[in-house]
């Protein structure tokens, strides 16, 4: 593909390049897969800087699309593995990398798959996740990757601004919910910037935000499993207007059993889920009595997917 002469993006893709590539491939971005391609080289370089990508990093990227961010990551990282579900985009991306950054082509790997089904990646273990996540699946994909690849210690994702707010929310915030607690199980989470609509093609009708997640050096100290803790979180927010005594009655087996678990954990039965830290949810999980319904062990993918469905409108 020819290099656009209307910008100084170097090997990166500019607006004219993106449209030329898409036209050649017969690609029209679809809402179904949440495809909005970044067309600004300065934006992808900013994302890489904000992510703190280092020369020794092995980066995994979800949804590379036409390769805008992929090329910027290859400039900075040791290796990049991209996971792409779209057959046409997956087939074209290696050729784009070879044409625009041939000296780094051997540092790139492509996995043609749904990110929610990925359980292993080629090459060295990933150390960072950097991605422009499709808005419609952003939270379950993020949680699945964090659960499946514990070697990832730094993450920067671009998501819908409201989703960014929910991921980074603290207890007591009105948008604090399932995504907030589950992300905090894995990492220290914070907003890392805003992205305007005009850097995308097509321009979305929502704003975007960057979220930084730095893996906890030490896991949450609890005798409960992640699945057990997440089951409490799901139950607490499924009926978020109710007190925890009522919201957790199904999880515990009865309202009385829920109250007993809450009191044992040092949590007020009259509190609501949005007031609790992840550590408090873990303490509640530890005190589930024998009368409660037995928990069902699930894979990380099943758990994160189910948890996000339970969260209802909290994802977007």
UniProtKB/TrEMBL annotation:
Subcellular location, principal: cytoplasm
Residues binding S-adenosyl-L-methionine, per UniProt: 36, 38, 63, 84, 114, 132
MF term (GO), any: RNA binding
Location in the cell: Cytoplasm
InterPro entries xref list: KsgA/Erm (IPR001737), rRNA_Ade_diMease-like_C (IPR023165), rRNA_Ade_Mease_Trfase_CS (IPR020596), rRNA_Ade_methylase_Trfase_N (IPR020598), rRNA_adenine_dimethylase (IPR011530), SAM-dependent_MTases_sf (IPR029063)
Record keywords: Cytoplasm, Methyltransferase, RNA-binding, rRNA processing, S-adenosyl-L-methionine, Transferase
Biased composition (Polar residues): 300-316
EC class: transferase
Keyword Zinc in record: no
Positions of region (Disordered): 285-316
Tagged with keyword rRNA processing: yes
HAMAP family, A to Z: 16SrRNA_methyltr_A (MF_00607)
Job description of the protein: Specifically dimethylates two adjacent adenosines (A1518 and A1519) in the loop of a conserved hairpin near the 3'-end of 16S rRNA in the 30S particle. May play a critical role in biogenesis of 30S subunits.
Protein's name according to its UniProt entry: Ribosomal RNA small subunit methyltransferase A
């Amino acid at each position: 593909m020819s290099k656009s002469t209307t910008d100084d993006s170097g090997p990166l893709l500019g607006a004219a390049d993106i449209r030329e590539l898409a036209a050649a491939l017969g690609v029209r971005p679809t809402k179904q897969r949440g495809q909005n391609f970044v067309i600004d080289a300065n934006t992808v370089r900013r994302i890489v800087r904000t992510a703190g990508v280092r020369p020794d990093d092995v980066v995994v990227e979800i949804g590379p699309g036409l390769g805008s961010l992929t090329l910027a990551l290859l400039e900075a990282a040791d290796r990049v593995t991209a996971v792409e579900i779209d057959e046409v985009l997956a087939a074209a991306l290696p050729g784009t990398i070879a044409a625009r950054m041939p000296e780094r082509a051997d540092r790139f790997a492509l996995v043609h798959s749904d990110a929610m089904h990925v359980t292993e990646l080629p090459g060295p273990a990933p150390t960072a996740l950097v991605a422009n996540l499709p808005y419609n699946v952003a939270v379950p994909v993020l949680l699945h990757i964090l659960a499946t690849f514990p070697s990832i210690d730094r993450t920067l994702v671009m998501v819908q601004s409201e989703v960014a707010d929910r991921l980074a929310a603290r207890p007591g915030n009105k948008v604090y919910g399932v995504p907030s607690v589950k992300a905090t199980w894995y990492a220290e989470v914070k907003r890392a910037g805003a992205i305007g609509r005009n850097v995308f093609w097509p321009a979305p009708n929502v704003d975007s935000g960057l979220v930084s997640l730095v893996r906890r050096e030490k896991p949450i100290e609890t005798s409960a499993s992640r699945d057990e803790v997440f089951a409490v979180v799901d139950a607490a927010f499924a009926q978020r207007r109710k007190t925890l005594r009522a919201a957790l009655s199904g999880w515990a087996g009865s309202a009385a059993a829920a109250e007993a678990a809450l009191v044992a954990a040092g949590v007020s039965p009259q509190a609501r889920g949005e007031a609790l830290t992840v550590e408090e949810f873990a303490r509640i999980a530890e005190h589930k009595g024998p009368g409660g319904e037995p928990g069902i062990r699930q894979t990380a993918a099943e758990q994160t997917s189910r948890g996000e469905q339970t969260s209802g409108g909290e994802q977007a």
